[in-house]
Amino acid sequence: MSHEAPRTPLPIAILISGRGSNMVAFIEAVAAGQLDARIALVLSNNPDAAGLERAREAGIDTAVINHRDYARREDFDAAMVARLRQAGAELVILAGFMRILTSVFITAFRGQLLNIHPSLLPKYPGLNTHQRALDAGDSEAGVTVHFVTEELDGGPPVLQARVPVQPGDSADSLAARVIVEEHKIYPLAARWFVQGRLTLSEQGAFLDGKRLPDTGLTYQPDLDRAAT
Ligand SMILES: Nc1nc2c(c(=O)[nH]1)N[C@@H](CN(C=O)c1ccc(C(=O)N[C@@H](CCC(=O)O)C(=O)O)cc1)CN2
Ligand SMILES: NCC(=O)N[C@@H]1O[C@H](COP(=O)([O-])[O-])[C@@H](O)[C@H]1O
After folding, report:
1. Residues of the chain with pLDDT under 50
2. How far apart are the CA of 161 and the centre of ligand 2, in A?
3. Can you tell me which atom of ligand 2 is nearest the CA of 179?
4. Residue 20 assigned to a binding site
5. pLDDT value of position 61
6. Structural domains in the chain?
7. Which residue stretches of the chain are H helix?
8. Which of 22, 84, 122, 211 could cross-link with 95 by S-S, CB 3.0 to 4.6 Å?
9. Which is nearest to 105 in space by CA: 78, 86, 82?
10. Do you know which PROSITE patterns this protein is assigned to (predicted)?
């Protein structure tokens, strides 16, 4: 008879600013038993974020902290940190969260803070990434999951997925292809963190004690089995 104590799912918080499809991918991964976590809170800076209603429909606690209510970014960040501490979040997932965070937030959650960015970093940090890739004539685009640091979209990459740019692509058609890959790689990277296998140090991002490549691992369908 096993006397192992039942594992307590890691409490995580998801920050959104919009529709929340990556948040839904996390809800589905938890429900499918693919992510041993509990979504303790969905937090948005945007009271009109469509993802808030999707979270509520799933029975998940939600909160809105509107950045427009704060004169200073640091005060906005401190309010979010306090709410996340109240929720007991041990991993913070930025999922289409559209505010640049200050060191107030980064310091509070360093090494426990991931983001998904719709480009093959280090290419195209910032906004409007797919149009920039198209304007540059790139043959492929993609998405990166990375640890979050003070440097905007400059934190150590964990995992990337690549998609081909097709003739006639618009930013919207490219985004529609990339988002499918986002929903695969973000819960997978979070799974590695929840398993205690993914860590951040001053030397970079590590998986199973091995330093990840500067652009992270490249997603392949069998990657999870290969990496486990
Ligand atoms: N310190 C950091 N903060 C954030 C990071 C990060 O890596 N370090 N990642 C971003 C997510 N992101 C891209 O992946 C991103 C989000 C927002 C912006 C931005 O320019 N925001 C503007 C407002 C834009 C708007 O409201 O539409 C701003 O904050 O003034 C750039 C990149 C999350 N934060
Ligand atoms: N700079 C951050 C950024 O642009 N993130 C991007 O916002 C979208 C959010 O979609 P979602 O709300 O459906 O998850 C995603 O494509 C994500 O990569």
Report:
1. 228
2. 14
3. 16
4. yes
5. 98
6. 10-226 (3.40.50.170)
7. 21-31, 50-57, 73-87, 103-109, 129-135, 171-194, 223-227
8. 22
9. 78
10. GART
